[in-house]
UniProtKB/TrEMBL annotation:
GO terms for molecular function: DNA binding. The keyword Kinase does not apply. This is DNA-binding response regulator. Signal peptide: none annotated. Residues 3-119 form the Response regulatory domain. GO terms for biological process: phosphorelay signal transduction system; regulation of DNA-templated transcription. Residues 142-207 form the HTH luxR-type domain. It comes from the Bacteria. Keywords: DNA-binding, Phosphoprotein, Transcription, Transcription regulation. The modification 4-aspartylphosphate is found at D54.
Length: 209
Protein backbone atom coordinates (compact mmCIF):
# COMPACT_ATOMS: atom_id res chain seq x y z
CA UNK A 1 0.00 0.00 0.00
CA UNK A 2 1.31 3.44 -0.98
CA UNK A 3 0.71 5.88 1.88
CA UNK A 4 0.09 9.44 0.67
CA UNK A 5 -0.02 12.79 2.47
CA UNK A 6 -1.59 15.73 0.60
CA UNK A 7 -0.35 19.27 1.21
CA UNK A 8 -2.28 22.12 -0.41
CA UNK A 9 -3.68 25.28 1.16
CA UNK A 10 -7.06 24.88 -0.57
CA UNK A 11 -9.41 22.33 1.04
CA UNK A 12 -11.34 21.82 -2.21
CA UNK A 13 -8.14 20.93 -4.07
CA UNK A 14 -7.16 18.47 -1.34
CA UNK A 15 -10.62 16.91 -1.59
CA UNK A 16 -10.27 16.56 -5.36
CA UNK A 17 -6.88 14.88 -5.04
CA UNK A 18 -8.16 12.59 -2.29
CA UNK A 19 -11.19 11.59 -4.37
CA UNK A 20 -9.01 10.88 -7.41
CA UNK A 21 -6.64 8.66 -5.44
CA UNK A 22 -9.53 6.89 -3.67
CA UNK A 23 -10.21 4.87 -6.83
CA UNK A 24 -6.77 3.23 -6.63
CA UNK A 25 -6.82 0.13 -4.42
CA UNK A 26 -3.06 0.32 -3.80
CA UNK A 27 -3.05 3.96 -2.58
CA UNK A 28 -4.18 5.25 0.83
CA UNK A 29 -4.34 8.94 1.80
CA UNK A 30 -3.16 8.97 5.41
CA UNK A 31 -3.33 12.73 6.14
CA UNK A 32 -3.75 16.25 4.78
CA UNK A 33 -2.01 19.56 5.51
CA UNK A 34 -2.48 23.15 4.41
CA UNK A 35 0.84 24.84 5.18
CA UNK A 36 4.58 24.34 5.67
CA UNK A 37 4.22 24.10 9.45
CA UNK A 38 1.29 21.67 9.22
CA UNK A 39 2.98 19.33 6.77
CA UNK A 40 6.21 19.25 8.80
CA UNK A 41 4.21 18.27 11.89
CA UNK A 42 2.10 15.78 9.94
CA UNK A 43 5.12 14.03 8.45
CA UNK A 44 6.59 13.58 11.92
CA UNK A 45 3.44 11.82 13.11
CA UNK A 46 2.00 10.09 10.05
CA UNK A 47 3.40 7.27 7.87
CA UNK A 48 4.07 8.59 4.37
CA UNK A 49 5.62 7.15 1.22
CA UNK A 50 4.61 9.93 -1.18
CA UNK A 51 3.94 13.59 -0.40
CA UNK A 52 1.66 15.27 -2.96
CA UNK A 53 2.74 18.88 -2.57
CA UNK A 54 1.60 22.26 -3.86
CA UNK A 55 4.22 24.96 -4.44
CA UNK A 56 2.17 27.99 -3.46
CA UNK A 57 1.64 27.64 0.29
CA UNK A 58 1.07 30.45 2.81
CA UNK A 59 4.32 31.57 4.41
CA UNK A 60 7.09 29.14 3.51
CA UNK A 61 6.35 27.42 0.21
CA UNK A 62 6.71 24.03 -1.42
CA UNK A 63 10.36 24.48 -2.32
CA UNK A 64 11.06 25.11 1.37
CA UNK A 65 9.37 21.79 2.17
CA UNK A 66 11.59 20.08 -0.41
CA UNK A 67 14.68 21.68 1.11
CA UNK A 68 13.76 20.54 4.63
CA UNK A 69 13.16 16.95 3.48
CA UNK A 70 16.45 16.87 1.59
CA UNK A 71 18.31 18.30 4.57
CA UNK A 72 16.85 15.57 6.77
CA UNK A 73 17.70 12.89 4.17
CA UNK A 74 14.04 11.84 4.27
CA UNK A 75 13.05 8.76 2.25
CA UNK A 76 9.68 10.35 1.42
CA UNK A 77 9.12 10.82 -2.31
CA UNK A 78 7.63 14.16 -3.39
CA UNK A 79 5.21 14.72 -6.27
CA UNK A 80 4.60 18.40 -7.00
CA UNK A 81 1.05 19.16 -8.16
CA UNK A 82 0.89 22.85 -8.99
CA UNK A 83 -0.96 25.46 -11.04
CA UNK A 84 2.38 26.88 -12.25
CA UNK A 85 3.41 26.12 -15.84
CA UNK A 86 5.53 23.02 -16.23
CA UNK A 87 8.03 24.64 -18.58
CA UNK A 88 8.86 27.22 -15.90
CA UNK A 89 8.81 25.14 -12.72
CA UNK A 90 9.19 21.41 -13.40
CA UNK A 91 12.97 21.41 -13.84
CA UNK A 92 13.42 23.77 -10.88
CA UNK A 93 11.44 21.38 -8.65
CA UNK A 94 13.27 18.28 -9.88
CA UNK A 95 16.58 19.96 -9.15
CA UNK A 96 15.30 20.84 -5.68
CA UNK A 97 14.61 17.17 -4.91
CA UNK A 98 11.10 16.41 -6.19
CA UNK A 99 10.57 13.07 -7.92
CA UNK A 100 7.74 14.30 -10.15
CA UNK A 101 5.76 17.30 -11.37
CA UNK A 102 2.15 17.62 -12.54
CA UNK A 103 0.07 20.63 -13.49
CA UNK A 104 -3.31 20.90 -11.72
CA UNK A 105 -4.96 21.47 -15.09
CA UNK A 106 -3.84 18.05 -16.32
CA UNK A 107 -5.77 14.79 -16.64
CA UNK A 108 -6.70 13.49 -13.14
CA UNK A 109 -5.86 9.92 -14.20
CA UNK A 110 -2.23 11.02 -14.54
CA UNK A 111 -2.15 11.63 -10.79
CA UNK A 112 -2.53 7.94 -9.94
CA UNK A 113 0.15 6.96 -12.44
CA UNK A 114 2.46 9.67 -11.09
CA UNK A 115 2.04 8.59 -7.46
CA UNK A 116 2.78 4.96 -8.34
CA UNK A 117 5.81 5.98 -10.41
CA UNK A 118 7.49 8.13 -7.75
CA UNK A 119 6.64 5.58 -5.05
CA UNK A 120 8.81 3.13 -7.01
CA UNK A 121 11.72 5.58 -6.85
CA UNK A 122 11.41 6.72 -10.44
CA UNK A 123 10.94 10.23 -11.85
CA UNK A 124 7.62 11.33 -13.30
CA UNK A 125 7.10 14.18 -15.75
CA UNK A 126 4.60 14.68 -18.53
CA UNK A 127 5.41 14.07 -22.18
CA UNK A 128 5.71 17.84 -22.71
CA UNK A 129 8.38 18.17 -20.01
CA UNK A 130 10.24 15.11 -21.34
CA UNK A 131 10.34 16.68 -24.79
CA UNK A 132 11.56 19.96 -23.31
CA UNK A 133 14.36 18.16 -21.45
CA UNK A 134 15.46 16.36 -24.61
CA UNK A 135 15.46 19.61 -26.58
CA UNK A 136 17.55 21.31 -23.90
CA UNK A 137 20.07 18.48 -24.02
CA UNK A 138 20.24 18.64 -27.81
CA UNK A 139 20.45 22.43 -27.93
CA UNK A 140 21.55 23.86 -24.58
CA UNK A 141 20.16 27.32 -24.00
CA UNK A 142 21.11 30.04 -21.58
CA UNK A 143 19.02 29.76 -18.41
CA UNK A 144 16.53 32.53 -17.75
CA UNK A 145 17.54 35.09 -15.17
CA UNK A 146 14.76 34.01 -12.81
CA UNK A 147 16.25 30.53 -12.56
CA UNK A 148 18.81 32.02 -10.16
CA UNK A 149 16.17 33.33 -7.74
CA UNK A 150 15.78 31.85 -4.28
CA UNK A 151 12.42 30.51 -3.15
CA UNK A 152 11.67 33.71 -1.20
CA UNK A 153 12.71 35.93 -4.09
CA UNK A 154 10.50 33.97 -6.47
CA UNK A 155 7.55 34.19 -4.06
CA UNK A 156 8.07 37.95 -3.79
CA UNK A 157 8.26 38.34 -7.57
CA UNK A 158 5.01 36.43 -8.13
CA UNK A 159 3.18 38.52 -5.55
CA UNK A 160 4.49 41.83 -6.87
CA UNK A 161 3.43 40.77 -10.36
CA UNK A 162 -0.04 40.01 -8.95
CA UNK A 163 -0.33 43.63 -7.81
CA UNK A 164 0.22 43.14 -4.10
CA UNK A 165 1.86 45.78 -1.92
CA UNK A 166 5.03 45.01 0.00
CA UNK A 167 3.12 45.24 3.29
CA UNK A 168 0.60 42.67 2.03
CA UNK A 169 3.40 40.41 0.82
CA UNK A 170 5.13 40.67 4.19
CA UNK A 171 1.95 39.63 6.00
CA UNK A 172 1.28 36.75 3.60
CA UNK A 173 4.83 35.40 3.80
CA UNK A 174 5.04 36.04 7.53
CA UNK A 175 8.04 38.32 7.12
CA UNK A 176 8.86 41.89 8.12
CA UNK A 177 8.26 44.62 5.50
CA UNK A 178 11.99 45.42 5.67
CA UNK A 179 12.87 41.84 4.73
CA UNK A 180 10.47 41.87 1.79
CA UNK A 181 11.98 45.16 0.67
CA UNK A 182 15.40 43.48 0.66
CA UNK A 183 14.02 40.65 -1.50
CA UNK A 184 12.58 43.22 -3.90
CA UNK A 185 15.97 44.94 -4.17
CA UNK A 186 17.63 41.61 -4.90
CA UNK A 187 15.02 40.88 -7.58
CA UNK A 188 15.66 44.17 -9.33
CA UNK A 189 19.39 43.53 -9.25
CA UNK A 190 19.28 39.90 -10.40
CA UNK A 191 16.74 40.54 -13.16
CA UNK A 192 18.38 43.82 -14.18
CA UNK A 193 15.14 45.77 -13.82
CA UNK A 194 14.25 49.18 -12.38
CA UNK A 195 10.82 49.03 -10.72
CA UNK A 196 7.70 47.00 -9.90
CA UNK A 197 6.15 47.65 -13.31
CA UNK A 198 9.15 46.08 -15.03
CA UNK A 199 9.04 43.16 -12.59
CA UNK A 200 5.40 42.60 -13.54
CA UNK A 201 6.13 42.75 -17.27
CA UNK A 202 9.02 40.31 -16.80
CA UNK A 203 6.82 37.83 -14.93
CA UNK A 204 4.12 38.01 -17.62
CA UNK A 205 6.54 37.69 -20.53
CA UNK A 206 8.14 34.66 -18.92
CA UNK A 207 4.73 33.12 -18.13
CA UNK A 208 5.39 33.07 -14.39
CA UNK A 209 1.90 34.40 -13.66
Amino acid sequence: MIRVVICDDHAMVRRGIRDTLADAVDIQVTAEAGSYAEVRETLRETPCDVLVLDLNLPGRGGLDVLASLREAASPIKVLIVSMFAEDQYAIRCLRAGAQGYLNKAGDPTELVVAVRTVAQGRKYVTAEVSEMLVENLASPTTEALHSTLSERELQTLLRIASGKRLSDIAEELMLSPKTVSVYRSRLLEKLKLANNAELTVYAIRNELV
